[in-house]
UniProtKB/TrEMBL annotation:
SUPFAM superfamilies cross-referenced by the UniProt entry: NagB/RpiA/CoA transferase-like
Originating species: Streptomyces avidinii
Protein's recorded name: L-lactate dehydrogenase complex protein LldG
Pfam family of the protein (one): LUD_dom
InterPro entries, alphabetized: FTHF_cligase-like_sf, LUD_dom, NagB/RpiA_transferase-like
Entry superkingdom: Bacteria
Signal peptide limits: none
Domain LUD intervals: 108-207
Gene3D superfamilies documented for this protein: NagB/RpiA/CoA transferase-like (3.40.50.10420)
Amino acid sequence: MSSKDRILGRIRRALRDDAPAVEVPRDYLHAHGSRTPAERVDLLAAHLAEYRAVVHRTDEAGLPPLIARLLAERGARSVLVPPGLPPHWLPAGGPTSVPDRAGSTPAELDRVDSVLTGCALAVAETGTIVLDGGPDQGRRRITLIPDHHICVVRVPDQVVDSVPQALPLLDPTRPLTWISGPSATSDIELDRVEGVHGPRTLEVVLLGTQ
């Protein structure tokens, strides 16, 4: 029996079938104020910028040239693409498209210059992007290893005010990744280091009508 099996066994014994159910009061605010869809998107953009994400706005017609420009400015020669990503998002004649493969090693993913994905939801009050491994997002690791992540958020449909509003819309059995800005950490002297456990650069494209 492994250590994992022993720990899970103890949890099962603690959560006996005959244990009384405890009702958890959820009387907290589900949103801090009332906003229009446009105000919600503006708040998301402001909080993303506070977290040092780079925010862009465009419509469907402007998306392919914008993505082409972002990849060119990065000098990307390869871009990792989830299987369900709309093909027209990628520029013709642009960087080499690398498919999301189960057999890809961390070293192979580290050699990819950029990754382009959609998202499941975005939370305005926290400036958070949520990925759930959907067809336009791919496996969790493809957004954690490459150093440059371009994430497209459909606005206003994919934007909610708060975490309490987001949770009922998400499937808890899926691999949820909550991203608030580029990966960063600080040591004991508060020196900020970016790109330690995720992309050093996060670019968020708010895709709507203009």
